[in-house]
Amino acid sequence: MIVIKSEAEIDGIRKSCRLLARLMGEVEGEIREGVTTKQLDQWVYRYITGHGGRPAFLGYGGFPGSACISVNDEVIHGIPGNRVLRAGDIVSMDLGINLNGFFSDMARTFPVGTVSNEAKRLMDVTSECLDEGIRQAVCGNRIKDISAAVFSRAGKYGVVRDYCGHGVGLKLHEDPEVPNYCSLSGKNPRLKSGMVIAIEPMINAGGWEVDVLDDGWTVVTRDGSLSAHFEDTVAVFPDRTEILTRL
Ligand code: MG
């Protein structure tokens, strides 16, 4: 069931999203060669709790971190740990905040030092996939208009199919699903005023296929190619769409 949010609820979600956008801006400065993903996770935990929020991912389904930190061929759901970041890595930070019961969700992929042109191109294209998807997230369109826009912008890159965007706001994951690829089957609801959704293309430099590691969480590309992940939470209004996770 898709929950239509009231103005007061969207205001609460907006505050959560704005805190998250500030966090994402600041954590970028902490991503550098030599830091471990666990150190980044602890930084994120302190930031969120220090601003009156709760890390939405911590304990969700048993997830052990405050942040999902996925490096290079890791697509999503990377568990923070002892991995040391190296120059040339790309790091996907997926973060969520529960602020007074209102949920936000956002991801960005960042370079560590100087990265390859291939990595830069992948990050640029994934970011553009997100922008193209958001452009279609307008009142009266359907979910698959978003999917088609993301998919077509990805071009020759592999668009991950096993995971997708989602409704968000009063819970971390709500209906509807927001796939990044086009399928003929499945629901295709119309976007209505008061809907809040997270759009989150996960794009691989190689094939679209992914596997889950034995830790039960970390999703990696099957062919070992690089992967990038960009996500924003947006609210749909009759005459405009607000990107809540951009300041
Ligand atoms: Mg999400």
Jot down its keywords.
5-stranded antiparallel β-sheet; 247 residues; Creatine Amidinohydrolase; 4 helices; binds magnesium ion; 4-stranded antiparallel β-sheet; globular; single chain; alpha+beta
Question: Mind telling me the C-alpha Rg?
Answer: 17 Å
Question: Can you give the mean pLDDT?
Answer: 98
Low-confidence stretches: none
Q: Tell me about the largest β-sheet.
A: 5 strands, antiparallel
Class of secondary structure makeup: alpha+beta
Present as ligands are: magnesium ion
What spatial form do the alpha-carbon principal axes imply?
globular
The second-level CATH architecture is Alpha-Beta Complex
CATH class: Alpha Beta
User: How many structural domains?
Assistant: 1
Considering DSSP H and I runs of 4 or more, what fraction of the residues is helical?
25-40%
Work out the strand percent. 25-35%
Describe the protein:
It is globular and about 45 Å long. The chain has a single domain, classed as Alpha-Beta Complex (Creatine Amidinohydrolase). With 247 residues, it is α+β, with helices and mostly antiparallel strands. The mean pLDDT is 98. Helices cover 27% and strands 26% of the residues. α3 (117-135) packs antiparallel against α4. The strands form four sheets. Strands 8-7-9-14-15 form a five-stranded antiparallel β-sheet. The protein starts with 6 loop residues before the first helix and ends with a strand. It binds magnesium ion (MG). Magnesium ion binds next to loops. Residues 105, 166, 198, 200, 231 line the site of magnesium ion.
